[in-house]
Amino acid sequence: MGEWARWARGRAGGLRGQGVGRVSAHVRVSLYDAARAARASLTYRSGMASHPNTAGRPAGIDPRGPRFAAAITSALLLIGTFLAVLGSATQSGTTFVERVADAGFLVLLVVALLFVWGFTSPATSPWSVLFRTAVRPRLAPPTDLEDPRPPRFAQVVGFVVVTIGLVLHVVGVPWALPIAGAAAFIAAFLNAAFGFCLGCQIYLALTRIGLIRPQGGILGGAQA
Hints:
The protein is mainly alpha-helical. It folds into two domains: 50 residues; 159 residues, no CATH class. The chain is built from eight helices and no strands. α6 crosses α8. It is globular, with a radius of gyration of 32 Å.
C-alpha cells in the first residue's frame, strides 16, 4: 500500500511537471512570436520612413546610362561654349542675324533640344538608345539600379540653364551664352567624371523640403 501511494504521488508529480513544461514552452513560443512581430513592424515602419515614396517609385535604371549621356553632353557643351567665346556672344552691338547665326549658339541650341528629348522621352533619346544598344551589352550587369526621376529632373535643370543663356544671347546680352554653357558643362562633367549629379541633388533637396512630390509623370518613367 505504501509503494502504491508513492507510485501515485510520483505519477501525479510527473504529470504536473509535464503540464508546467508544456505551459512554459507555450509561453516561450508566444513571447518569441511577439518579439518577431515587433521587429518586423519596426523594420516596416523604419523602411517607410526612410523611403516614403517606395510604393509609387518607377522601375530602376542602369546608373551608367545617365553618366554616359552626361559624358557626350559635356563634350557638346564644351564645344558650344568654346565657339561662343570665339563668336559674337562676347561682343556688343551685334545684329540679330549675327547672333542667331553664331556657331556657339547653334551648338548650344542643339544641346537644349537634346535636354528636352531627355526629359520628355528618355527611353528614345539618342544617348539612351546608343547606350542601350552599343554600350550596355558589353558591360557587366549593374550592381544596383537608380531611381530615374532625379536624372530626368537634371535634364530639366540643364535645359533651363542653357535656355536662359540662349534667350539672353538672342536679345543681345554679351557673355550670357558662354557663361550658361560653362555652367551646364561643369554640371555635366561632374556627373560624367565623378558620378556627382548636381541636378539630382537639387531634386532630392526639393523633395525633402516638400516642393516636389515624386509621383512619376514628367519626373518618372523609363530610361536607359
